[in-house]
Amino acid sequence: FKNGLNNAYLDELKVYSKLMSKEEILADYELNDDEILHLSFNDENANDVSGNGNHGEAFDVTYEQGVDGKAAHIVNANGSSSKKAASYINLGDQIDFSTNDFTISFWYKSNVGNENGGTIISNKDYDSGVNDGFAIGSFTKEIRANFAFGGSRKDIKFTPIDGLWHHNVITFDRDGKMITYTDGAKSGEADISKYANDNINLGDLVIGADRNKCYGLLDSYLDEVKVFTSVKSGYEVEKLYQEFKTVIGDRLLSASFDGNVEDASGNHNNGKIQGNVEYVDGVKGKAVHIT
Protein backbone atom coordinates (compact mmCIF):
# COMPACT_ATOMS: atom_id res chain seq x y z
CA PHE A 1 0.00 0.00 0.00
CA LYS A 2 1.24 3.51 -0.87
CA ASN A 3 0.27 7.13 -0.16
CA GLY A 4 -0.73 6.41 3.43
CA LEU A 5 -2.23 8.96 5.80
CA ASN A 6 0.04 10.85 8.19
CA ASN A 7 -1.39 11.97 11.54
CA ALA A 8 -5.05 11.73 10.49
CA TYR A 9 -8.28 10.99 12.36
CA LEU A 10 -11.37 9.18 11.04
CA ASP A 11 -14.71 8.41 12.65
CA GLU A 12 -18.15 7.04 11.71
CA LEU A 13 -17.19 5.62 8.30
CA LYS A 14 -20.19 4.42 6.25
CA VAL A 15 -20.63 3.05 2.73
CA TYR A 16 -24.01 2.80 0.99
CA SER A 17 -25.15 1.01 -2.17
CA LYS A 18 -27.29 3.94 -3.36
CA LEU A 19 -27.31 7.68 -3.91
CA MET A 20 -28.42 9.31 -0.67
CA SER A 21 -31.02 12.07 -0.44
CA LYS A 22 -30.29 15.45 1.16
CA GLU A 23 -32.37 14.41 4.18
CA GLU A 24 -30.39 11.20 4.63
CA ILE A 25 -27.08 13.03 4.33
CA LEU A 26 -28.24 15.56 6.94
CA ALA A 27 -29.27 12.75 9.30
CA ASP A 28 -25.81 11.17 9.01
CA TYR A 29 -24.17 14.56 9.56
CA GLU A 30 -26.10 15.21 12.76
CA LEU A 31 -24.81 11.88 14.13
CA ASN A 32 -27.33 11.81 16.98
CA ASP A 33 -25.33 14.41 18.89
CA ASP A 34 -28.10 14.37 21.51
CA GLU A 35 -27.30 10.75 22.42
CA ILE A 36 -26.35 10.61 26.12
CA LEU A 37 -26.31 6.83 26.57
CA HIS A 38 -25.51 3.89 24.31
CA LEU A 39 -25.08 0.39 25.71
CA SER A 40 -23.98 -1.97 22.93
CA PHE A 41 -22.92 -4.81 25.29
CA ASN A 42 -20.37 -5.91 22.67
CA ASP A 43 -17.53 -5.87 25.21
CA GLU A 44 -19.67 -7.91 27.63
CA ASN A 45 -20.16 -5.05 30.05
CA ALA A 46 -22.50 -2.12 30.69
CA ASN A 47 -20.11 0.61 29.56
CA ASP A 48 -21.55 3.63 27.74
CA VAL A 49 -20.09 3.90 24.22
CA SER A 50 -21.77 7.25 23.46
CA GLY A 51 -18.69 9.08 24.72
CA ASN A 52 -20.52 10.58 27.72
CA GLY A 53 -19.20 8.20 30.36
CA ASN A 54 -22.62 7.19 31.71
CA HIS A 55 -21.43 3.68 32.49
CA GLY A 56 -23.67 1.19 34.25
CA GLU A 57 -22.89 -1.56 36.76
CA ALA A 58 -24.09 -5.02 35.73
CA PHE A 59 -25.14 -7.56 38.35
CA ASP A 60 -25.35 -11.25 37.39
CA VAL A 61 -25.86 -10.39 33.70
CA THR A 62 -24.62 -12.72 30.95
CA TYR A 63 -23.98 -11.83 27.32
CA GLU A 64 -25.13 -13.73 24.24
CA GLN A 65 -25.63 -13.10 20.52
CA GLY A 66 -27.81 -10.05 19.90
CA VAL A 67 -28.96 -7.96 16.95
CA ASP A 68 -25.41 -6.67 16.56
CA GLY A 69 -22.63 -8.41 18.44
CA LYS A 70 -23.58 -9.20 22.02
CA ALA A 71 -26.82 -8.65 23.93
CA ALA A 72 -27.45 -8.55 27.68
CA HIS A 73 -29.28 -11.62 29.02
CA ILE A 74 -31.17 -10.91 32.26
CA VAL A 75 -32.68 -13.81 34.23
CA ASN A 76 -34.42 -13.60 37.62
CA ALA A 77 -36.00 -16.67 39.22
CA ASN A 78 -38.06 -14.35 41.43
CA GLY A 79 -38.73 -11.78 38.72
CA SER A 80 -42.10 -10.15 38.13
CA SER A 81 -42.48 -9.74 41.90
CA SER A 82 -41.66 -7.41 44.79
CA LYS A 83 -38.67 -9.58 45.75
CA LYS A 84 -35.17 -8.23 45.12
CA ALA A 85 -33.82 -8.98 41.66
CA ALA A 86 -30.42 -10.63 41.28
CA SER A 87 -29.83 -9.73 37.62
CA TYR A 88 -30.02 -6.11 36.45
CA ILE A 89 -27.96 -3.09 35.32
CA ASN A 90 -27.80 -0.02 37.55
CA LEU A 91 -27.06 3.28 35.79
CA GLY A 92 -27.35 5.30 38.99
CA ASP A 93 -28.62 8.88 38.96
CA GLN A 94 -26.01 10.27 36.54
CA ILE A 95 -28.47 11.02 33.70
CA ASP A 96 -30.32 14.30 34.27
CA PHE A 97 -33.93 13.98 33.07
CA SER A 98 -35.43 16.80 35.17
CA THR A 99 -38.36 18.25 33.15
CA ASN A 100 -36.64 17.78 29.80
CA ASP A 101 -37.76 15.90 26.70
CA PHE A 102 -36.12 12.54 26.05
CA THR A 103 -36.27 9.37 23.95
CA ILE A 104 -35.44 5.77 24.87
CA SER A 105 -34.56 3.20 22.19
CA PHE A 106 -33.75 -0.50 22.62
CA TRP A 107 -34.05 -3.97 21.09
CA TYR A 108 -35.88 -6.58 23.20
CA LYS A 109 -36.64 -10.29 23.04
CA SER A 110 -38.35 -12.64 25.48
CA ASN A 111 -40.15 -15.98 25.38
CA VAL A 112 -41.50 -15.45 28.89
CA GLY A 113 -44.25 -13.01 29.75
CA ASN A 114 -44.04 -11.27 33.13
CA GLU A 115 -47.57 -11.68 34.51
CA ASN A 116 -47.20 -9.09 37.27
CA GLY A 117 -44.89 -6.87 35.27
CA GLY A 118 -41.13 -7.10 34.85
CA THR A 119 -39.15 -3.89 34.41
CA ILE A 120 -37.19 -3.27 31.22
CA ILE A 121 -36.00 0.22 32.20
CA SER A 122 -37.28 2.54 34.92
CA ASN A 123 -36.48 5.16 37.55
CA LYS A 124 -39.61 4.57 39.64
CA ASP A 125 -40.93 2.26 42.34
CA TYR A 126 -42.86 -0.09 40.04
CA ASP A 127 -44.87 -1.70 42.84
CA SER A 128 -47.66 0.37 41.32
CA GLY A 129 -47.89 2.11 37.97
CA VAL A 130 -49.38 5.12 39.74
CA ASN A 131 -46.14 5.84 41.61
CA ASP A 132 -44.15 8.88 40.43
CA GLY A 133 -41.75 8.37 37.52
CA PHE A 134 -41.58 6.39 34.30
CA ALA A 135 -41.22 2.72 33.48
CA ILE A 136 -41.05 0.51 30.42
CA GLY A 137 -42.42 -2.86 31.52
CA SER A 138 -42.65 -6.37 30.10
CA PHE A 139 -45.99 -8.06 30.76
CA THR A 140 -47.64 -11.35 29.74
CA LYS A 141 -48.44 -10.39 26.16
CA GLU A 142 -46.88 -7.00 25.50
CA ILE A 143 -44.48 -4.23 26.49
CA ARG A 144 -46.04 -1.23 28.24
CA ALA A 145 -44.90 2.37 28.64
CA ASN A 146 -45.90 4.14 31.85
CA PHE A 147 -45.61 7.74 33.08
CA ALA A 148 -47.14 8.93 36.35
CA PHE A 149 -47.16 11.76 38.87
CA GLY A 150 -49.31 12.92 41.77
CA GLY A 151 -51.54 9.84 41.79
CA SER A 152 -52.32 10.07 38.06
CA ARG A 153 -50.90 7.84 35.32
CA LYS A 154 -50.70 7.31 31.56
CA ASP A 155 -50.04 3.92 29.95
CA ILE A 156 -49.52 2.53 26.45
CA LYS A 157 -49.56 -1.15 25.48
CA PHE A 158 -47.46 -1.72 22.38
CA THR A 159 -44.83 -4.32 21.30
CA PRO A 160 -45.85 -8.02 21.56
CA ILE A 161 -43.91 -10.53 23.68
CA ASP A 162 -43.46 -13.32 21.13
CA GLY A 163 -39.90 -14.62 21.39
CA LEU A 164 -38.67 -12.44 18.50
CA TRP A 165 -36.38 -9.44 18.47
CA HIS A 166 -38.32 -6.16 18.24
CA HIS A 167 -37.08 -2.58 18.16
CA ASN A 168 -38.80 -0.29 20.66
CA VAL A 169 -38.74 3.50 20.92
CA ILE A 170 -40.56 5.67 23.44
CA THR A 171 -40.47 9.45 23.05
CA PHE A 172 -41.37 11.73 25.95
CA ASP A 173 -42.43 15.23 24.89
CA ARG A 174 -42.87 16.63 28.39
CA ASP A 175 -45.44 19.27 27.41
CA GLY A 176 -47.00 17.05 24.75
CA LYS A 177 -47.28 13.31 24.19
CA MET A 178 -45.59 10.06 25.07
CA ILE A 179 -45.37 8.12 21.79
CA THR A 180 -44.33 4.50 21.24
CA TYR A 181 -42.88 2.86 18.13
CA THR A 182 -42.50 -0.83 17.30
CA ASP A 183 -40.06 -1.87 14.56
CA GLY A 184 -39.97 1.65 13.15
CA ALA A 185 -43.75 2.22 13.09
CA LYS A 186 -45.83 4.29 15.51
CA SER A 187 -47.77 1.99 17.84
CA GLY A 188 -49.39 4.24 20.45
CA GLU A 189 -49.59 7.64 22.13
CA ALA A 190 -50.79 9.28 25.34
CA ASP A 191 -50.99 12.91 26.44
CA ILE A 192 -48.50 13.59 29.28
CA SER A 193 -48.61 17.41 29.12
CA LYS A 194 -50.17 17.64 32.61
CA TYR A 195 -46.83 16.41 34.02
CA ALA A 196 -44.72 18.99 32.15
CA ASN A 197 -43.38 20.65 35.32
CA ASP A 198 -42.78 17.48 37.34
CA ASN A 199 -39.09 16.72 37.87
CA ILE A 200 -38.41 13.04 37.21
CA ASN A 201 -34.92 12.92 38.72
CA LEU A 202 -36.17 10.41 41.28
CA GLY A 203 -33.19 8.13 41.85
CA ASP A 204 -31.40 5.30 40.07
CA LEU A 205 -32.17 4.49 36.44
CA VAL A 206 -32.19 0.69 36.23
CA ILE A 207 -32.37 -1.82 33.38
CA GLY A 208 -33.98 -5.16 34.22
CA ALA A 209 -35.57 -4.01 37.49
CA ASP A 210 -37.23 -0.96 39.01
CA ARG A 211 -35.54 1.82 41.00
CA ASN A 212 -35.63 -0.37 44.13
CA LYS A 213 -34.12 -3.34 42.23
CA CYS A 214 -37.43 -5.24 42.43
CA TYR A 215 -39.88 -6.39 39.72
CA GLY A 216 -37.04 -7.88 37.70
CA LEU A 217 -37.30 -9.51 34.30
CA LEU A 218 -37.83 -13.28 34.32
CA ASP A 219 -35.81 -14.16 31.20
CA SER A 220 -35.12 -11.44 28.63
CA TYR A 221 -32.55 -10.13 26.15
CA LEU A 222 -31.75 -6.46 25.50
CA ASP A 223 -29.44 -4.89 22.95
CA GLU A 224 -28.44 -1.43 21.69
CA VAL A 225 -30.00 0.55 24.55
CA LYS A 226 -29.93 4.29 23.80
CA VAL A 227 -31.16 7.46 25.50
CA PHE A 228 -31.46 10.83 23.72
CA THR A 229 -32.15 14.33 25.05
CA SER A 230 -34.76 15.10 22.40
CA VAL A 231 -38.04 13.86 20.98
CA LYS A 232 -37.12 11.74 17.96
CA SER A 233 -39.28 12.18 14.86
CA GLY A 234 -40.88 9.29 13.01
CA TYR A 235 -38.16 9.54 10.37
CA GLU A 236 -35.41 9.40 13.00
CA VAL A 237 -37.06 6.40 14.66
CA GLU A 238 -37.14 4.57 11.33
CA LYS A 239 -33.41 5.29 10.95
CA LEU A 240 -32.73 3.85 14.41
CA TYR A 241 -34.67 0.71 13.46
CA GLN A 242 -32.91 0.29 10.13
CA GLU A 243 -29.49 0.74 11.77
CA PHE A 244 -29.55 -2.77 13.24
CA LYS A 245 -32.31 -4.45 11.26
CA THR A 246 -30.99 -7.67 9.67
CA VAL A 247 -29.82 -7.24 6.96
CA ILE A 248 -29.37 -3.50 6.49
CA GLY A 249 -30.69 -2.99 2.98
CA ASP A 250 -28.56 -0.23 1.45
CA ARG A 251 -25.81 0.14 4.06
CA LEU A 252 -22.77 -1.92 3.11
CA LEU A 253 -20.41 -0.77 5.86
CA SER A 254 -20.65 1.10 9.15
CA ALA A 255 -17.44 1.44 11.17
CA SER A 256 -17.70 3.52 14.35
CA PHE A 257 -14.11 2.77 15.51
CA ASP A 258 -15.22 2.46 19.13
CA GLY A 259 -12.20 0.38 20.06
CA ASN A 260 -12.30 -1.86 16.99
CA VAL A 261 -12.73 -1.90 13.20
CA GLU A 262 -15.82 -4.11 13.14
CA ASP A 263 -18.70 -3.48 10.74
CA ALA A 264 -21.94 -2.58 12.57
CA SER A 265 -24.09 -2.69 9.42
CA GLY A 266 -24.95 -6.36 9.82
CA ASN A 267 -23.00 -7.30 6.68
CA HIS A 268 -19.83 -8.45 8.50
CA ASN A 269 -17.44 -6.33 6.40
CA ASN A 270 -14.99 -6.14 9.29
CA GLY A 271 -11.61 -4.45 8.91
CA LYS A 272 -8.13 -5.44 10.07
CA ILE A 273 -5.67 -3.16 11.85
CA GLN A 274 -2.30 -2.71 10.14
CA GLY A 275 0.59 -0.71 11.56
CA ASN A 276 0.46 2.18 14.02
CA VAL A 277 -3.22 2.83 14.77
CA GLU A 278 -4.77 4.02 18.03
CA TYR A 279 -8.27 4.87 19.27
CA VAL A 280 -8.88 8.38 20.61
CA ASP A 281 -11.92 10.54 21.41
CA GLY A 282 -13.87 11.26 18.22
CA VAL A 283 -17.05 13.01 17.11
CA LYS A 284 -19.04 10.16 18.67
CA GLY A 285 -17.36 7.76 21.06
CA LYS A 286 -13.93 6.82 19.74
CA ALA A 287 -12.16 7.64 16.46
CA VAL A 288 -9.19 5.98 14.78
CA HIS A 289 -5.86 7.87 14.72
CA ILE A 290 -3.53 6.87 11.87
CA THR A 291 0.10 7.99 11.91
Automatic annotation (TrEMBL):
Task: State the protein's name.
Answer: LamG domain-containing protein
User: Pfam families, per this entry?
Assistant: Laminin_G_3
Question: What InterPro entries does this protein's entry cite?
Answer: ConA-like_dom_sf
Can you tell which superkingdom this protein's organism belongs to?
Bacteria
